[in-house]
Write a structure and sequence with these properties.
The chain has about 170 residues and is α+β, with helices and mostly antiparallel strands. The chain is about 15% helix and about 40% strand.
């Protein structure tokens, strides 16, 4: 596992608001035959249905969407400050147009039906439990609509956290 060790979700370190909202994460799905990744700053972690879960949001036009739809697992991975340029590339370029992992200098790791990158400092391997499209008729705060000028509403994915991997 390229220097990773497994820990329990309860032993994770760090502030989830900082990790997701400010440092960003990569959402990745696929297999050796094909995968894609994208940078995201929307998501969270918690407990639902008696399980440790993570959730993320993907717009249907994103290339990663089709991989997450097809696969039973996705990963959320987090990086140090030295990977900001790679995260920026993965958030601004499409995997339809180039091999983002190669262009960003990321090394894919394929294990247990999931894919993540060796450069990560923290990886959550998640089994999809639930997905649902954001429905604007349920917005209780009218200001939320400003995030959807194109009416391209995200799909929310909730994944049961199967493994938490930290870099040694």
């Amino acid at each position: 596992m390229s220097g990773f060790r497994e820990i329990s979700p309860e032993d994770m370190q760090g502030n989830v608001f900082e990790q997701i909202g400010r440092q960003w994460m990569l959402i990745t799905a696929g297999d050796k035959a094909g995968f894609n990744t994208m940078t995201a700053s929307w998501g969270g972690m918690g407990v639902l249905w008696g399980r440790d879960v993570a959730f993320c949001f993907i717009r249907p036009q994103r290339y990663t969407y089709q991989f997450v739809q097809k696969q039973p697992r996705f990963t959320l991975s987090f990086y140090g400050d030295g990977q900001r340029e790679a995260l920026n590339l993965c958030g601004t370029r499409s995997g339809r147009d180039l091999d983002k992992a190669k262009a960003a200098g990321l090394t894919p790791v394929f294990e247990g039906g999931a894919v993540w990158f060796d450069e990560a400092k923290l990886v959550l391997v998640c089994q999809k439990l639930y997905d649902q499209d954001i429905d604007p008729s349920n917005f209780l705060d009218a200001g939320i609509a400003q995030h959807y000028a194109q009416k391209d509403y995200h799909r929310m994915y909730i994944g049961g956290i199967e493994r938490v991997l930290v870099k040694e």
